[in-house]
Design a protein that fits this description.
Layout: E1 40-44, E2 47-48, E3 54-58, E4 61-65, E5 73-81, E6 85-93
Parallel strand pairs: 4-6
Antiparallel strand pairs: 1-5, 2-3, 3-4, 5-6
Length: 94
């Protein structure tokens, strides 16, 4: 079996590519959140989000609680922390 060495390989040096842009994150991504995963908190649902989940704020930080409505007083366990909000689940309806 003969090798085909007659065609030279071209190496892409990336010279024609634009400079890679640096990804920037908002400062809120790195600020300590007022809640932690697994923490249990007594809250009153202040409003309802566009998706229909109950919503409350803890020190200005938004916490979404599915299956609740405005005015509900519930005990919530935080299940997820995100840069802009947290998600909790109802433990006990008060």
């Amino acid at each position: 079996m003969e090798s085909d060495d007659s065609m030279p390989m071209e190496i892409d040096t990336g010279a024609a590519r634009p400079e890679a842009t640096e990804r920037r994150f908002p400062k809120s991504y790195f600020v300590a959140k007022p809640v932690k995963v697994g923490e249990e908190i007594d809250v009153t649902i202040d409003e309802v989000s566009r998706r229909g989940d109950g919503m409350t704020r803890i020190k200005g930080y938004v916490v979404f609680v599915p299956n609740t409505k405005e005015g509900d007083s519930v005990k919530v366990r935080i299940t997820q922390i995100r840069p802009s909000h947290a998600i909790g689940e109802v433990i006990i309806d008060s």
